[in-house]
Specification:
Layout: H1 2-10, H2 15-33, H3 37-58, H4 67-93, H5 99-127, H6 135-157, H7 161-180, H8 184-208
Helix pairs in contact: 3-4, 3-8, 5-6, 6-7, 7-8
């Protein structure tokens, strides 16, 4: 019996067994390098769903919650999501070297540069006398268009159809939010925008398994 077990341990692996072992080790390495992107997408989906949903419920005619409370909770939720995204980016880049690391770093900084410029432009338009009723539409529309473009760029860089498709959906949500007008734009952001992130998270999770 002992000799038989030793013969089994010493025999060379078949090509199928070798491929299975390589796939298993690759999956373990992927999980060790960084968190699951499905979790990141789910976090943003919940933040959009709850954050923008609370703001919509605080506006007339519903006014179910005080506006200051809804705004404060939304700010805290988005701040938490941004912090988690930063941690995700750092962990994802751990152990990566060469051009891939440079591309990832440049893509990460592009988010900050793009939204920094967007903030300056929108703030300047508000100071020039933009109608107060149009301010929420300005921020929601331009922010989603920019976010969608960044996802399109990410989809092209990493050849991810899922990320590219999410970018298309976010751009469509941005346009729809402006067409819906206030305060219904927040309902569009909550249900369509947040729902889009959650669906993408579910699709990514199913495909990865």
């Amino acid at each position: 019996m002992v000799e038989h077990e030793r013969d089994d341990d010493a025999r060379p692996m078949t090509p199928e067994e070798s491929l299975a072992l390589i796939a298993k080790q690759a999956e373990e390495t992927r999980r060790g390098i960084g968190p699951n992107p499905a979790v990141l997408l789910a976090v943003w989906g919940l933040v959009w769903l709850l954050g923008f949903g609370l703001i919509y419920l605080s506006a007339p005619p519903t006014s179910l919650t005080p506006l200051w409370l809804a705004g404060a909770l939304a700010v805290v939720a988005f701040a938490g999501a941004i912090a988690y995204s930063a941690i995700y980016g750092i962990r994802s880049g751990r152990g990566v070297r060469g051009p891939s690391r440079l591309v990832g770093a440049m893509y990460g900084w592009s988010w900050m540069i793009a939204f920094g410029g967007l903030t300056v432009v929108n703030t300047a338009l508000i100071r020039l006398g933009l109608d107060s009723e149009l301010i929420p539409l300005l921020w929601s529309g331009t922010s989603l268009i920019l976010t969608g473009l960044m996802y399109l760029a990410g989809g092209m860089l990493w050849q991810s159809k899922l990320q590219y498709g999410l970018g298309v959906w976010i751009i469509a949500c941005g346009a729809a939010s402006v067409l819906a007008g206030g305060p219904h734009n927040f309902l569009v952001l909550s249900l369509a925008g947040g729902g889009g992130f959650l669906v993408a998270s579910l699709v990514f999770l199913v495909r990865s398994r």
